[in-house]
């Protein structure tokens, strides 16, 4: 039984390391989003850090329109990045979970 516990602890530690490696890798995964007309573009990492925003000059003339564009595009980009982030981390966590009776909620 003690060996089983040590094996589970080792597996959990290995899984934690894989999760940390995945988080670092997600800093290099880029998510691009743009407005329907292409006047505003944003790039985020899968860890939801903004890398770039490109604004067409025509949007600079209307502050309210620019704000609306920013809200819409950034929300869509954040949602996509969150989906990628959660899927990647869940896959690593699920793969690395030891078989503990009663803890099958991750499978």
Automatic annotation (TrEMBL):
Its main location: cytoplasm. It is found in: Cytoplasm, Nucleoid. Keywords: Coiled coil, Cytoplasm, DNA-binding. The keyword Aminoacyl-tRNA synthetase does not apply. InterPro entries: YbaB-like_sf, YbaB/EbfC. Residues 5-32 form a coiled coil. GO terms for cellular component: bacterial nucleoid; cytosol. GO terms for molecular function: DNA binding. Homodimer. PANTHER family: NUCLEOID-ASSOCIATED PROTEIN YBAB (PTHR33449). Binds to DNA and alters its conformation. May be involved in regulation of gene expression, nucleoid organization and DNA protection. Belongs to the YbaB/EbfC family. HAMAP family: DNA_YbaB_EbfC. This is Nucleoid-associated protein Q767_08905. It comes from Flavobacterium enshiense DK69.
């Amino acid at each position: 039984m003690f060996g089983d516990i040590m094996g589970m602890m080792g597996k959990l530690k290995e899984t934690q390391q894989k999760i940390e490696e995945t988080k670092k890798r997600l800093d290099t995964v880029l998510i691009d989003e743009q407005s329907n007309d292409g006047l505003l573009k944003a790039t985020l990492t899968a860890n939801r850090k903004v890398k770039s925003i490109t604004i067409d000059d025509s949007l600079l003339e209307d502050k309210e329109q620019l704000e609306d564009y920013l809200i819409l595009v950034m929300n869509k980009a954040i949602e996509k990045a969150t989906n990628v982030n959660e899927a990647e981390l869940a896959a690593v966590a699920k793969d690395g979970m030891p078989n503990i009776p009663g803890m099958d909620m991750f499978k």
